């Protein structure tokens, strides 16, 4: 029977409850594939960083750090099935994400990437990121948030202090991002469309959904995933108008926590199809 290796995300990239949920979705996906006859091995992002990676025909890749991605890149180059590909995980690092999405036609907030040690941008640039004069988002510019203070909404007159706090924590790059008004929704998907779900960020999965154009949400989410090369993905979209989605963020292998079992089944079905196509085409 074919062999798969599931690579679990480093705890530093899955803070607090995210660590439990990230582990749970990968566990559920592995269980689905094991039921289909796969032999399974589990390992960690740290082991991959150290160059310890078992041989397999399939890798389920939750790694988010650059070092692990570099170790996995030869597998991708050799055509081994890796979901998500290390290149697509790297594309989710914020400074790359901003460049790739910014070069596309997708709706995306105005964003400025700069070194945390750089001088404060001119007032005119900051005001362009905050048309209402209220706040600008400041986010770490490399990987996704490791702790709550990695993503902050800062009043314009406190941007310098906020940047200093990022610099003091040793974060080299930051993103200054425009605030997009309107309801925010969280979305989750699998690249071939066999799974897509969403809910309002404020009300949560069990709450009332905001009145938005779901078709436009779905089109935006899948186009963004395609630009980055993601197969298993999730993210956030703001709706300044019900039919005008604006992508705020997208990342690889989210937890799918509110609908874990359905998502795991869909991911396993997709991987089975992709592996068969790769193996026999």
List the helices and strands and how they pair.
Elements: E1 3-8, H1 17-35, E2 39-44, H2 45-49, E3 58-61, H3 66-77, E4 81-83, H4 86-91, H5 94-102, E5 111-115, H6 123-128, E6 136-140, E7 151-154, H7 159-168, E8 173-177, E9 184-190, E10 195-200, H8 214-228, E11 232-241, E12 244-252, H9 260-280
Parallel strand pairs: 1-2, 1-3, 3-4
Antiparallel strand pairs: 5-8, 6-7, 6-8, 9-10, 9-11, 11-12
Describe this structure in words.
The chain is α/β, with parallel strands linked by helices and 281 residues long. It has 3 domains: 3-84 and 260-280, Response regulator (Rossmann fold, 3-Layer(aba) Sandwich), CATH 3.40.50.2300; 110-177, ATP-grasp fold, A domain (Dna Ligase, domain 1), CATH 3.30.1490; 184-252, no CATH class. The protein is 37% helix and 25% strand. α1 links the parallel β1 and β2. The chain is globular. The model has no long low-confidence stretch (mean pLDDT 91).
What tags apply to this protein structure?
4-stranded antiparallel beta sheet; Dna Ligase, domain 1; 4-stranded parallel beta sheet; 281 residues; single chain; 37% helix; Rossmann fold; 3 domains; 9 helices; alpha/beta
| Percent helix range | 25-40%
Distance between the termini: 19 Å
SSE ordering? EHEHEHEHHEHEEHEEEHEEH
CATH fold-level topology of the largest domain? Rossmann fold
Q: How is the largest sheet built, in terms of strand order? A: 2-1-3-4
Report the CATH superfamily of the largest domain.
Answer: Response regulator
Which structural class should the secondary elements be placed in? Answer: alpha/beta
Would you identify the regions where 5 or more consecutive residues have pLDDT less than 50?
none
Number of strands: 12
CATH class of the largest domain: Alpha Beta
